[in-house]
Protein backbone atom coordinates (compact mmCIF):
# COMPACT_ATOMS: atom_id res chain seq x y z
CA UNK A 1 0.00 0.00 0.00
CA UNK A 2 1.43 3.36 -1.00
CA UNK A 3 1.56 6.38 1.29
CA UNK A 4 -0.89 8.16 -1.01
CA UNK A 5 -3.35 5.28 -0.78
CA UNK A 6 -3.07 5.22 3.01
CA UNK A 7 -3.66 8.98 3.22
CA UNK A 8 -6.66 8.74 0.88
CA UNK A 9 -8.16 5.92 2.93
CA UNK A 10 -7.65 7.82 6.19
CA UNK A 11 -9.19 10.96 4.67
CA UNK A 12 -12.24 8.92 3.67
CA UNK A 13 -12.52 7.84 7.30
CA UNK A 14 -12.35 11.47 8.47
CA UNK A 15 -15.03 12.40 5.91
CA UNK A 16 -17.18 9.49 7.15
CA UNK A 17 -16.88 10.72 10.74
CA UNK A 18 -17.53 14.34 9.76
CA UNK A 19 -20.84 13.27 8.20
CA UNK A 20 -21.78 11.26 11.30
CA UNK A 21 -22.00 13.42 14.44
CA UNK A 22 -24.60 11.13 16.05
CA UNK A 23 -25.52 7.42 15.85
CA UNK A 24 -28.50 8.30 13.63
CA UNK A 25 -26.30 10.24 11.25
CA UNK A 26 -23.77 7.39 11.25
CA UNK A 27 -26.43 4.94 10.08
CA UNK A 28 -27.60 7.42 7.44
CA UNK A 29 -24.01 7.76 6.22
CA UNK A 30 -23.68 3.98 5.99
CA UNK A 31 -26.99 3.79 4.15
CA UNK A 32 -25.89 6.33 1.55
CA UNK A 33 -22.76 4.31 0.81
CA UNK A 34 -24.65 1.04 0.68
CA UNK A 35 -27.28 2.43 -1.68
CA UNK A 36 -24.57 3.83 -3.96
CA UNK A 37 -23.11 0.31 -4.13
CA UNK A 38 -26.45 -1.23 -5.10
CA UNK A 39 -27.54 -2.66 -1.76
CA UNK A 40 -31.32 -3.03 -1.33
CA UNK A 41 -33.07 -1.86 1.82
CA UNK A 42 -35.24 -4.37 3.64
CA UNK A 43 -37.94 -3.53 6.16
CA UNK A 44 -38.47 -5.64 9.25
CA UNK A 45 -42.27 -5.50 8.83
CA UNK A 46 -42.15 -6.94 5.29
CA UNK A 47 -41.63 -10.51 4.10
CA UNK A 48 -38.13 -11.03 2.77
CA UNK A 49 -37.31 -12.75 -0.50
CA UNK A 50 -33.54 -13.06 -0.72
CA UNK A 51 -31.52 -14.43 -3.61
CA UNK A 52 -27.98 -15.80 -3.84
CA UNK A 53 -25.60 -12.97 -4.59
CA UNK A 54 -28.13 -10.40 -3.32
CA UNK A 55 -26.89 -7.37 -1.39
CA UNK A 56 -29.18 -6.07 1.35
CA UNK A 57 -29.37 -3.96 4.49
CA UNK A 58 -31.87 -3.36 7.28
CA UNK A 59 -32.08 -0.60 9.90
CA UNK A 60 -33.51 -0.83 13.41
CA UNK A 61 -34.42 2.21 15.56
CA UNK A 62 -32.59 4.49 13.15
CA UNK A 63 -29.27 3.94 14.95
CA UNK A 64 -28.35 0.31 14.20
CA UNK A 65 -27.80 -1.22 10.77
CA UNK A 66 -27.00 -4.67 9.41
CA UNK A 67 -25.79 -5.11 5.82
CA UNK A 68 -25.10 -8.45 4.16
CA UNK A 69 -24.27 -10.23 0.94
CA UNK A 70 -25.96 -13.59 0.39
CA UNK A 71 -23.29 -16.13 -0.56
CA UNK A 72 -23.45 -18.25 -3.69
CA UNK A 73 -23.04 -21.42 -1.62
CA UNK A 74 -25.41 -22.69 1.06
CA UNK A 75 -24.64 -21.04 4.40
CA UNK A 76 -25.14 -24.42 6.10
CA UNK A 77 -21.91 -25.53 4.41
CA UNK A 78 -19.85 -22.35 4.63
CA UNK A 79 -21.19 -20.57 7.71
CA UNK A 80 -21.37 -16.79 8.01
CA UNK A 81 -18.56 -14.26 8.15
CA UNK A 82 -19.74 -11.54 10.53
CA UNK A 83 -18.07 -8.28 11.57
CA UNK A 84 -19.61 -6.26 14.39
CA UNK A 85 -18.98 -2.70 15.58
CA UNK A 86 -20.96 0.09 17.22
CA UNK A 87 -22.31 3.46 16.09
CA UNK A 88 -22.44 5.26 19.44
CA UNK A 89 -19.72 7.14 21.29
CA UNK A 90 -19.59 8.35 24.91
CA UNK A 91 -20.49 11.96 25.53
CA UNK A 92 -23.23 14.33 26.64
CA UNK A 93 -26.91 13.88 25.76
CA UNK A 94 -29.47 16.68 25.97
CA UNK A 95 -32.33 16.17 28.42
CA UNK A 96 -36.00 16.15 27.28
CA UNK A 97 -36.62 19.58 28.84
CA UNK A 98 -33.08 20.95 29.02
CA UNK A 99 -33.27 24.74 28.87
CA UNK A 100 -33.01 26.90 31.99
CA UNK A 101 -32.24 30.48 32.92
CA UNK A 102 -29.23 30.51 35.23
CA UNK A 103 -28.91 34.02 36.66
CA UNK A 104 -28.57 35.76 33.33
CA UNK A 105 -27.27 32.85 31.24
CA UNK A 106 -29.20 30.33 29.13
CA UNK A 107 -27.92 26.79 29.51
CA UNK A 108 -28.93 23.24 28.56
CA UNK A 109 -29.06 20.36 31.00
CA UNK A 110 -27.29 17.17 29.95
CA UNK A 111 -26.95 13.53 30.92
CA UNK A 112 -23.63 11.72 30.72
CA UNK A 113 -23.84 8.95 28.12
CA UNK A 114 -21.38 6.12 28.72
CA UNK A 115 -17.93 6.87 30.09
CA UNK A 116 -16.48 9.97 28.42
CA UNK A 117 -13.41 11.80 29.70
CA UNK A 118 -15.49 14.76 30.84
CA UNK A 119 -12.59 17.17 31.21
CA UNK A 120 -11.98 16.99 27.44
CA UNK A 121 -15.38 18.55 26.73
CA UNK A 122 -14.33 21.82 28.37
CA UNK A 123 -13.48 24.79 26.14
CA UNK A 124 -14.45 22.97 22.93
CA UNK A 125 -16.59 24.34 20.07
CA UNK A 126 -19.65 22.17 20.66
CA UNK A 127 -22.88 21.88 18.74
CA UNK A 128 -25.98 19.67 18.59
CA UNK A 129 -26.88 16.70 16.39
CA UNK A 130 -29.38 13.86 16.54
CA UNK A 131 -33.00 13.22 15.68
CA UNK A 132 -36.25 14.99 16.39
CA UNK A 133 -39.82 13.72 16.13
CA UNK A 134 -42.17 16.33 14.70
CA UNK A 135 -45.94 16.27 14.41
CA UNK A 136 -47.31 15.14 11.05
CA UNK A 137 -50.55 13.97 9.49
CA UNK A 138 -49.60 10.37 10.32
CA UNK A 139 -48.84 11.21 13.95
CA UNK A 140 -45.13 12.04 13.84
CA UNK A 141 -42.17 11.99 11.49
CA UNK A 142 -38.52 11.55 12.45
CA UNK A 143 -36.09 14.16 11.19
CA UNK A 144 -32.32 14.31 11.52
CA UNK A 145 -30.97 17.59 12.79
CA UNK A 146 -27.48 19.04 12.92
CA UNK A 147 -26.21 22.49 13.82
CA UNK A 148 -22.97 22.97 11.89
CA UNK A 149 -21.83 26.11 13.65
CA UNK A 150 -20.54 26.10 17.26
CA UNK A 151 -23.60 26.49 19.45
CA UNK A 152 -22.61 25.40 22.96
CA UNK A 153 -19.68 25.63 25.34
CA UNK A 154 -18.49 24.27 28.67
CA UNK A 155 -16.13 27.03 29.85
CA UNK A 156 -13.40 26.06 32.26
CA UNK A 157 -13.16 27.71 35.65
CA UNK A 158 -10.16 30.02 35.71
CA UNK A 159 -7.13 28.72 37.59
CA UNK A 160 -7.46 31.72 39.94
CA UNK A 161 -10.64 30.07 41.27
CA UNK A 162 -9.44 26.48 41.02
CA UNK A 163 -5.84 26.61 42.20
CA UNK A 164 -5.46 22.83 42.55
CA UNK A 165 -6.63 21.92 39.04
CA UNK A 166 -3.17 20.98 37.79
CA UNK A 167 -2.49 18.82 40.83
CA UNK A 168 -5.94 17.34 41.45
CA UNK A 169 -7.28 17.22 37.89
CA UNK A 170 -10.29 18.85 36.27
CA UNK A 171 -13.51 17.47 37.73
CA UNK A 172 -17.15 18.35 37.08
CA UNK A 173 -20.22 17.73 39.20
CA UNK A 174 -22.42 15.96 36.66
CA UNK A 175 -25.62 17.69 37.76
CA UNK A 176 -24.54 21.25 38.53
CA UNK A 177 -21.35 21.88 36.53
CA UNK A 178 -21.94 20.10 33.21
CA UNK A 179 -24.90 22.08 31.76
CA UNK A 180 -23.77 23.68 28.51
CA UNK A 181 -23.93 27.44 27.94
CA UNK A 182 -26.13 28.41 25.00
CA UNK A 183 -26.55 32.16 25.31
CA UNK A 184 -27.57 35.15 27.38
CA UNK A 185 -31.00 35.01 28.99
CA UNK A 186 -33.70 37.07 27.28
CA UNK A 187 -36.01 38.78 29.81
CA UNK A 188 -38.99 38.59 27.45
CA UNK A 189 -38.47 34.95 26.33
CA UNK A 190 -38.29 32.06 28.82
CA UNK A 191 -35.55 29.51 28.32
CA UNK A 192 -37.61 26.56 27.11
CA UNK A 193 -39.53 28.39 24.35
CA UNK A 194 -36.29 29.98 23.18
CA UNK A 195 -34.57 26.60 22.82
CA UNK A 196 -37.58 25.10 21.07
CA UNK A 197 -37.64 28.00 18.64
CA UNK A 198 -33.98 27.47 17.85
CA UNK A 199 -34.64 23.81 17.11
CA UNK A 200 -37.81 24.56 15.15
CA UNK A 201 -36.03 27.11 12.96
CA UNK A 202 -33.33 24.56 12.13
CA UNK A 203 -36.00 22.08 11.01
CA UNK A 204 -38.30 24.70 9.44
CA UNK A 205 -41.30 23.65 11.54
CA UNK A 206 -43.45 25.36 14.16
CA UNK A 207 -42.23 25.04 17.78
CA UNK A 208 -45.57 23.49 18.70
CA UNK A 209 -44.85 20.65 16.25
CA UNK A 210 -41.75 19.53 18.13
CA UNK A 211 -42.61 16.39 20.09
CA UNK A 212 -39.48 14.57 21.30
CA UNK A 213 -35.77 14.46 20.57
CA UNK A 214 -32.55 12.55 21.10
CA UNK A 215 -29.64 14.97 20.78
CA UNK A 216 -25.98 14.82 21.65
CA UNK A 217 -23.32 17.49 21.93
CA UNK A 218 -20.53 17.01 19.39
CA UNK A 219 -17.20 18.66 18.66
CA UNK A 220 -17.39 20.77 15.50
CA UNK A 221 -13.64 20.64 14.85
CA UNK A 222 -12.97 18.45 11.82
CA UNK A 223 -10.55 15.56 11.84
CA UNK A 224 -6.96 16.27 10.82
CA UNK A 225 -3.66 14.62 10.00
CA UNK A 226 -0.78 15.34 12.36
CA UNK A 227 2.75 14.24 13.20
CA UNK A 228 6.21 14.83 11.72
CA UNK A 229 5.22 12.86 8.62
CA UNK A 230 1.45 13.37 8.97
CA UNK A 231 1.28 9.74 10.00
CA UNK A 232 -1.45 10.18 12.62
CA UNK A 233 -5.07 11.34 12.63
CA UNK A 234 -7.08 13.14 15.31
CA UNK A 235 -10.87 13.28 15.37
CA UNK A 236 -13.95 12.82 17.47
CA UNK A 237 -15.67 9.39 17.47
CA UNK A 238 -12.76 7.26 16.29
CA UNK A 239 -14.15 4.89 18.91
CA UNK A 240 -15.91 3.33 17.19
CA UNK A 241 -16.74 4.83 13.81
CA UNK A 242 -13.26 3.87 12.61
CA UNK A 243 -14.26 0.21 13.00
CA UNK A 244 -17.61 0.82 11.28
CA UNK A 245 -15.86 2.51 8.37
CA UNK A 246 -13.26 -0.27 8.06
CA UNK A 247 -15.89 -3.03 8.12
CA UNK A 248 -18.16 -1.20 5.69
CA UNK A 249 -15.25 -0.56 3.34
CA UNK A 250 -14.39 -4.26 3.43
CA UNK A 251 -17.98 -5.27 2.71
CA UNK A 252 -18.34 -2.80 -0.16
CA UNK A 253 -15.12 -4.15 -1.69
CA UNK A 254 -16.49 -7.71 -1.59
CA UNK A 255 -17.76 -8.74 -5.01
CA UNK A 256 -19.16 -12.19 -5.80
CA UNK A 257 -18.86 -14.20 -2.59
CA UNK A 258 -19.27 -17.91 -1.98
CA UNK A 259 -19.81 -17.22 1.72
CA UNK A 260 -22.56 -15.07 3.20
CA UNK A 261 -20.94 -11.92 4.66
CA UNK A 262 -22.60 -9.69 7.23
CA UNK A 263 -21.70 -6.41 8.95
CA UNK A 264 -23.67 -5.40 12.04
CA UNK A 265 -23.29 -1.94 13.57
CA UNK A 266 -25.14 -1.55 16.86
CA UNK A 267 -26.17 1.39 19.03
CA UNK A 268 -25.86 1.49 22.84
CA UNK A 269 -22.55 -0.39 23.20
CA UNK A 270 -21.22 2.39 25.43
CA UNK A 271 -24.04 1.86 27.92
CA UNK A 272 -24.13 -1.95 28.00
CA UNK A 273 -25.88 -2.98 24.74
CA UNK A 274 -29.09 -4.04 26.50
CA UNK A 275 -31.67 -2.51 24.17
CA UNK A 276 -33.70 -3.48 21.12
CA UNK A 277 -31.11 -1.74 18.93
CA UNK A 278 -28.10 -2.97 20.91
CA UNK A 279 -25.98 -6.07 20.52
CA UNK A 280 -27.74 -7.49 23.57
CA UNK A 281 -31.06 -7.37 21.74
CA UNK A 282 -32.44 -9.66 19.06
CA UNK A 283 -31.44 -7.64 15.99
CA UNK A 284 -28.61 -9.78 14.66
CA UNK A 285 -30.26 -13.10 15.56
CA UNK A 286 -33.51 -11.93 13.93
CA UNK A 287 -31.69 -11.02 10.72
CA UNK A 288 -29.75 -14.29 10.65
CA UNK A 289 -32.91 -16.30 11.29
CA UNK A 290 -34.79 -14.55 8.50
CA UNK A 291 -31.82 -14.84 6.15
CA UNK A 292 -31.68 -18.57 6.88
CA UNK A 293 -35.40 -19.10 6.36
CA UNK A 294 -35.47 -17.06 3.17
CA UNK A 295 -32.64 -19.14 1.71
CA UNK A 296 -34.35 -22.43 2.58
CA UNK A 297 -32.41 -23.59 5.63
CA UNK A 298 -34.33 -25.68 8.17
CA UNK A 299 -33.62 -25.59 11.92
CA UNK A 300 -30.93 -28.27 11.68
CA UNK A 301 -29.12 -26.49 8.85
CA UNK A 302 -29.31 -23.17 10.72
CA UNK A 303 -27.42 -24.71 13.61
CA UNK A 304 -24.87 -26.21 11.24
CA UNK A 305 -24.47 -22.77 9.70
CA UNK A 306 -23.73 -21.18 13.08
CA UNK A 307 -21.24 -23.93 13.91
CA UNK A 308 -19.34 -23.00 10.71
CA UNK A 309 -19.54 -19.24 11.39
CA UNK A 310 -16.94 -16.75 12.62
CA UNK A 311 -17.57 -13.41 14.30
CA UNK A 312 -15.09 -10.52 14.44
CA UNK A 313 -15.87 -7.91 17.08
CA UNK A 314 -14.11 -4.76 15.86
CA UNK A 315 -13.61 -2.10 18.51
CA UNK A 316 -10.66 0.21 19.09
CA UNK A 317 -7.66 -0.85 21.19
CA UNK A 318 -5.44 0.95 23.71
CA UNK A 319 -2.13 2.05 22.17
CA UNK A 320 1.08 2.41 24.18
CA UNK A 321 1.52 5.99 25.41
CA UNK A 322 5.11 6.46 26.62
CA UNK A 323 4.17 9.26 29.03
CA UNK A 324 2.19 6.77 31.14
CA UNK A 325 4.20 3.50 31.14
CA UNK A 326 2.67 2.28 34.41
CA UNK A 327 -0.78 2.07 32.80
CA UNK A 328 0.19 -0.83 30.55
CA UNK A 329 0.82 -4.53 30.94
CA UNK A 330 4.51 -5.31 30.27
CA UNK A 331 4.87 -7.32 27.07
CA UNK A 332 1.54 -6.07 25.69
CA UNK A 333 2.42 -2.52 24.68
CA UNK A 334 0.82 -2.24 21.27
CA UNK A 335 2.07 0.49 18.96
CA UNK A 336 0.27 2.87 16.63
CA UNK A 337 0.81 2.11 12.93
CA UNK A 338 1.96 -1.43 13.75
CA UNK A 339 -1.20 -3.31 12.74
CA UNK A 340 -4.52 -4.64 14.11
CA UNK A 341 -4.64 -5.66 17.76
CA UNK A 342 -6.02 -8.96 19.05
CA UNK A 343 -7.54 -8.30 22.48
CA UNK A 344 -7.64 -11.05 25.12
CA UNK A 345 -9.02 -11.27 28.65
CA UNK A 346 -9.21 -14.39 30.82
CA UNK A 347 -12.47 -13.19 32.40
CA UNK A 348 -14.19 -12.96 29.00
CA UNK A 349 -14.41 -9.20 28.83
CA UNK A 350 -13.23 -9.91 25.30
CA UNK A 351 -14.45 -12.95 23.34
CA UNK A 352 -11.03 -14.02 22.06
CA UNK A 353 -9.81 -17.58 22.62
CA UNK A 354 -6.47 -19.11 21.70
CA UNK A 355 -8.10 -20.68 18.64
CA UNK A 356 -9.80 -17.53 17.40
CA UNK A 357 -6.66 -15.45 18.01
CA UNK A 358 -4.67 -17.90 15.89
CA UNK A 359 -7.34 -17.74 13.21
CA UNK A 360 -7.17 -13.94 13.05
CA UNK A 361 -3.36 -14.10 12.97
CA UNK A 362 -3.66 -16.31 9.90
CA UNK A 363 -6.07 -13.82 8.34
CA UNK A 364 -3.60 -10.98 8.88
CA UNK A 365 -0.76 -13.07 7.45
CA UNK A 366 -2.83 -13.84 4.38
CA UNK A 367 -3.69 -10.13 4.03
CA UNK A 368 -0.02 -9.21 4.32
CA UNK A 369 -0.46 -7.01 7.40
CA UNK A 370 1.16 -7.23 10.85
CA UNK A 371 -0.86 -7.86 13.98
CA UNK A 372 -0.36 -7.33 17.71
CA UNK A 373 -1.70 -8.78 20.96
CA UNK A 374 -3.10 -6.85 23.89
CA UNK A 375 -3.97 -7.70 27.49
CA UNK A 376 -5.01 -5.18 30.15
CA UNK A 377 -3.11 -4.66 33.40
CA UNK A 378 -4.42 -7.16 35.95
CA UNK A 379 -4.88 -4.47 38.61
CA UNK A 380 -7.00 -2.24 36.32
CA UNK A 381 -10.61 -2.83 35.35
CA UNK A 382 -10.91 -3.96 31.76
CA UNK A 383 -13.53 -2.57 29.41
CA UNK A 384 -15.68 -4.86 27.30
CA UNK A 385 -17.20 -4.98 23.83
CA UNK A 386 -20.09 -6.49 21.89
CA UNK A 387 -17.89 -9.56 21.29
CA UNK A 388 -18.84 -11.67 24.34
CA UNK A 389 -22.50 -10.60 24.01
CA UNK A 390 -22.95 -11.60 20.37
CA UNK A 391 -20.81 -14.73 20.70
CA UNK A 392 -22.91 -15.94 23.66
CA UNK A 393 -26.25 -15.18 22.01
CA UNK A 394 -25.36 -16.83 18.71
CA UNK A 395 -23.06 -19.54 20.03
CA UNK A 396 -20.34 -18.90 17.47
CA UNK A 397 -16.56 -18.58 17.46
CA UNK A 398 -15.48 -14.98 18.03
CA UNK A 399 -12.41 -12.79 18.27
CA UNK A 400 -12.07 -9.24 19.59
CA UNK A 401 -9.79 -6.99 17.57
CA UNK A 402 -9.25 -3.27 16.99
CA UNK A 403 -6.95 -0.58 15.69
CA UNK A 404 -4.65 0.98 18.31
CA UNK A 405 -5.53 4.49 19.42
CA UNK A 406 -4.74 7.10 22.05
CA UNK A 407 -7.13 8.96 24.37
CA UNK A 408 -10.04 6.55 24.05
CA UNK A 409 -13.29 8.25 25.17
CA UNK A 410 -11.80 11.71 24.88
CA UNK A 411 -13.75 14.16 22.77
CA UNK A 412 -10.63 14.26 20.56
CA UNK A 413 -9.04 10.86 19.96
CA UNK A 414 -5.97 9.93 17.91
CA UNK A 415 -4.86 6.95 15.82
CA UNK A 416 -2.54 5.93 12.99
CA UNK A 417 -2.99 6.47 9.26
CA UNK A 418 -1.39 3.15 8.33
CA UNK A 419 -3.43 1.17 10.86
CA UNK A 420 -6.69 2.01 9.15
CA UNK A 421 -5.47 0.60 5.83
CA UNK A 422 -4.17 -2.46 7.67
CA UNK A 423 -7.57 -2.99 9.30
CA UNK A 424 -9.51 -2.73 6.04
CA UNK A 425 -7.13 -5.20 4.39
CA UNK A 426 -7.52 -7.68 7.26
CA UNK A 427 -11.32 -7.43 7.36
CA UNK A 428 -11.54 -7.72 3.57
CA UNK A 429 -9.56 -10.95 3.78
CA UNK A 430 -11.74 -12.21 6.64
CA UNK A 431 -14.91 -11.75 4.59
CA UNK A 432 -13.41 -13.68 1.70
CA UNK A 433 -12.04 -16.47 3.90
What does the model show?
It is a single chain. With 433 residues, the chain is an alpha/beta fold. The chain has two domains: 3-89 and 236-432, Zn peptidases (Aminopeptidase, 3-Layer(aba) Sandwich); 91-219, Roll (Aminopeptidase i, Domain 2). It is built from eleven helices and 20 strands. A hairpin with a 6-residue loop joins strand 19 and strand 20. Helix 1 (3-18) crosses helix 11 (417-432), helix 2 (23-36) runs parallel beside helix 6 (238-252) and helix 9 packs across helix 11 (417-432). The two termini are 21 Å apart.
Task: Describe the structure using short key phrases.
433 residues; alpha/beta; Aminopeptidase; 2 domains; nine-stranded mixed sheet; 11 helices; 29% helix
Decide which structural class fits the backbone. Answer: alpha/beta
Helical stretch count?
11
The side-by-side strand order for the widest beta sheet comes to 1-2-3-13-4-14-18-16-17
What oligomeric state do the depicted chains represent? single chain
Q: How big is the Rg?
A: 22 Å
Report the average pLDDT across residues. 96
Would you state the CATH class of the largest domain? Alpha Beta
Q: Can you give the helix content as a percent range?
A: 25-40%
**Main β-sheet description:** 9 strands, mixed
Number of domains: 2
- CATH homologous superfamily (4th level) name of the largest domain: Zn peptidases
Which strand-content bin applies to the residues?
A: 25-35%
| Spatial gap, N to C terminus | 21 Å
* Number of beta-strand segments: 20
Low-confidence stretches: none
